[in-house]
Each structure stands twice: as C-alpha cells, then as structure tokens.
Amino acid sequence: MCAHCDAIIPELGTASCHHGSTFRWGACSDSGVSSIALAALASLSPDNVALIRREIGGAPDAWTIDEIGDGNVNMIFRLTGPRGQVLIKQAVPYLRCVGESWPLSLRRNFFERKALESHARFAPEHLPRVFAFDEASASMVMEFLGDHIILRKGVMRGIRYPKFADHISDYMAKTLFFTSDLFLSAGQKKEQMQLFSENTDLCKITEDLIFTDPYRVADQNRWTTPELDALANGFAVDPELKVAITELKAKFLTCTEALIHGDLHTGSIMVNQQETKVIDPEFAFYGPMGFDVGLLLANFFLAYYSQAGLDCNPLEYEDWLLRQVEQIWSEFERKFSALWDTHLDGDYLPARLLTPDTRTEVIHRVRANYLARLFDDSLGFAASEMIRRILGLAHVADMAEIAEPRARALSEARALYAARELLLNHGRYRNISQILEMVRAKRNRISA
Fold first, then answer.
1. Strand pairing of 15-16 and 63-67?
2. What is the C-alpha separation between 197 and 195, in angstroms, rounded?
C-alpha cells in the first residue's frame, strides 16, 4: 500500500513509488500515476513478465514507473528497468479529455492490438512492437520509442524529416492495399470486417466530432472567441456545408474499403531522422481509404497555416510542409499503383474476369478510376479534419500554442476558408498541384 493513494495491488512484484514508497505494482495518484492503471501489470502472466524482464532487465522490485502521456483517450506509462524501458498503454472507461460523462468501452485496446497485428504483417518497420496484452485490464506493453518524437512536436519546432514522406506513403500503401479486397478474397475481408465492426464507441466519436458537431450548435464545440465567432456561427447554419458533410459521413458509415488506422494525424506518428513509427490505431475499422490519407494531409495543411502565427520557424519551412503533402500523395499513389501490378489477387478484380487481349486496358482503367475516387475522398476528409480541429472539441497544438489570439484566429481563418473550399468543391481538383495552389492562395489572400 502507498500511504499517498491507499493502493493495494495483487502480489506479483514491487515497484518504486515516486513518493519513496515501495509497493506491489502500485503508484501514487498525486504523482500522476493511477494505481488502477498499474493493476494491469499485476494481471500479466508470468510469461509476459518474463518478456518484460528480457527487454528491460532486472527484477520487478528494481523497476520504476511514471505516467508520460497527455492524450485525449488513454493513459500512457513508462516502465523502466536496469537495461531499458517499455511503454504501458491502458484504456480507461471514458474519454479522458471530457471525463466520465462520456463513457467508452475498454475493449478499444483489443481493437488496437488487432490492428497492430494486421498492419504489422505488411509494414512492421513502421510500427512499434507489442510485447504483451491483457484484455481484462485493457492494457498493452509495447516498445518504448525513446529516441523518437511525436511528429507534431517536431514540425512545430521546424525539424525536417527527409525520410518521412517515403516511410508514411509506404505504410499507407501497404496497409490499405493488403487489407482491401484488391488483395483479399471476399470471405477473408468479411471475416476481418466482422471483427472490427464491433469498434463502435471509437467510430461514434468520429461520427460526432468530425461529421456532426462542428456544423451545429454544440456545447462541446470551442474556438478562438470572439475573433472566430462569425465564422463558427456561419458554419453551424450553412446548408451547403451540412449537405456536403452528410455525404462524407455517409461514405464513412458505409464504405468498407480497407482496415484503416482511423486517426492518422501528426500526433499519431513518432519519428526521428531514420525511422517513422505509426502509433495509436485504436480507432481502426473497415472504412474508406481516403479517411487515413485525408487526415494526414489535413494536419500538414494545419501545420502550414499555423507557421505565421507561431512565428518561430524560417519562412521556407512553410514550403517544406507543402512539399511533404505533394510527396506523400505522389509516393502513395505510385506505390499503391505498383501493388496492383504484383498483388492484384483479391475479388475486387478477379483474374477470371480478364482476358489476354483486354487485361492491360481493363486494369489500367479500373486502377485510374479507383485512384481518382480515392484522391477525391481524401480531399473531402482532409477538409472535415481541418474544420473540426478549429471549431470542434479536440484542437491541435499547432494552432492552440499560438499565444496571441488575433494571430491564432488569422491562421485558423485561413485554414477554415481552405477547408470550406475543399469540402464543397473537392471534386473539381484533379491533382495535388492544384490543391497546393489553392492552399497557398488562401494563405496569401487573407490578411489581418
């Protein structure tokens, strides 16, 4: 028991409390570590404890643990031993950024683990390793990426990552293609769809926070006030936006193209100069491919528009951010297309449909149509992400850390005008160069 938090944890081992107490798999609540969360360790099997010991060394009584996460959904802990560290991620039965008034199923960590397992079959180099999972306590023990940084934080500091576009396009092309019916049989895909269809709580968050609340008067919406009051109120009553977002929401609800990450933004990616690791796929389900691509592009657009307000990076960094958008899409399109040439084994375009004299033409035309639709979807979903990150509940640090309200509002307004254009007119754009031209124009034409 710790005198500071009255925690009694089952006897499995001991860990050091930051108040100086040593007790069984517990920690002090006022040090930021929940004894309930750490109970996950107590329920690990001896085999899993042995796995941890091989990773970090020493006996459990030599380990220390502290909370390091600040996410909206889960609790994140670092477990340290003599030879290294592992990360422990535990779900709590509610949305952390709101509180217990928004309950969530603890089973979301199960879906995260399943998504990591599935995606690791195709892009293991871009994912953290999972050492142990305990469904009863909704916790995972994972690789600690101590020499990586959250991409959003690196971008806000003006750091350039020369390998990122190559890495993330590789991750998206492989995970989206190989979990779709371009590669899988209809039966294989439906089996996976059935499993992930139960991830309803996390999907509901997306359905509400991205596709509904920013376009109505909702208590949880927030924005830079009073500077953006007129824009926010206009978005809430605009019938054109309501129609457009409903069409996108319908695609999110009904389009089951691939096992998507479901929350792929710059806060869900860890990087250094050599590696890119995608984390937190707890929102994973079978949905539209463009949702993953669009969310990622949107966060680069938000980072681009935030630069003037942050005013801490050289001007050419803005160009670097937009070059990343161009490279991410171009490389994704190239790699995704290449997979059609070597792995078109699924039921979407079965070989028996093709004949020797029509095979090349049919594959070319079907692929071109598929990619055009994916590009269009990505633009629409990018718009929805940009809007919700400014007018909805969960904002991004890129904008939120602009200290001066008028400067923040100007950056946000530029992003909102670009997002509105994308949401209403994404079908008019045929290539990424046209998008970047529009994004730059909104940046330059809207002044203080």
1. parallel
2. 6
User: Mean of the pLDDT values across residues 283-305?
Assistant: 98
pTM of the model: 0.90
DSSP letter string, 247-299: HHHHHHHH---EEE-S--STTSEEE-SS-EEE---TT-EEE-HHHHHHHHHHH
The CA–CA distances, whole Å, from 339 to 151, 165, 183 equal: 27, 18, 9
| pLDDT tens string 432-444 | 999 999 999 999 8
Q: Which residue matches tokens 């009255």?
A: 6
Largest CA distance in the chain: 79
| 107 φ, ψ (degrees, to nearest 5) | -75, -5
Report, as an integer, the average pLDDT of 306-324.
96
CB 182 within 8 A of CB 348: yes
* CB-CB contact of 44 with 25 (8 Å): no
| CB-CB contact of 344 with 182 (8 Å) | yes
| Cβ neighbours of residue 34 closer than 8 Å, sequence gap 6 or more | 27, 67, 75
Q: State how far Cα 148 lies from the chain centre.
A: 16
**Closest listed residue to residue 128, CA positions, set 136, 138, 139, 117:** 117
Give yes or no for residue 340 having a pLDDT over 70.
yes
Is-contact 210 216, C-beta < 8 A? Answer: no
DSSP state letters, 391-438 = HSS---HHHHT--SHHHHHHHHHHHHHHHHHHHHHGGG--SHHHHHHH
Residue reference for tokens 């081992």: 13
Helices (H), 57-150: 108-120
Asked if 52 and 131 count as a contact pair (C-beta separation under 8 A), the reply is: yes
Which of the two residues, 245 and 137, has the higher pLDDT score? 245
- Give the DSSP letter of residue 127: S
How is residue 10 written in tokens?
A: 């089952």
3-class secondary structure, 140: strand
Predicted confidence (pLDDT) per residue in 2-44, tens digit: 322 222 222 333 333 333 333 233 333 334 444 544 555 666 6
Least confident of 48-52, 145-149, 173-177: 48-52
Residue 120 has pLDDT above 90, yes or no: yes
Does pLDDT of 1 surpass 80? no
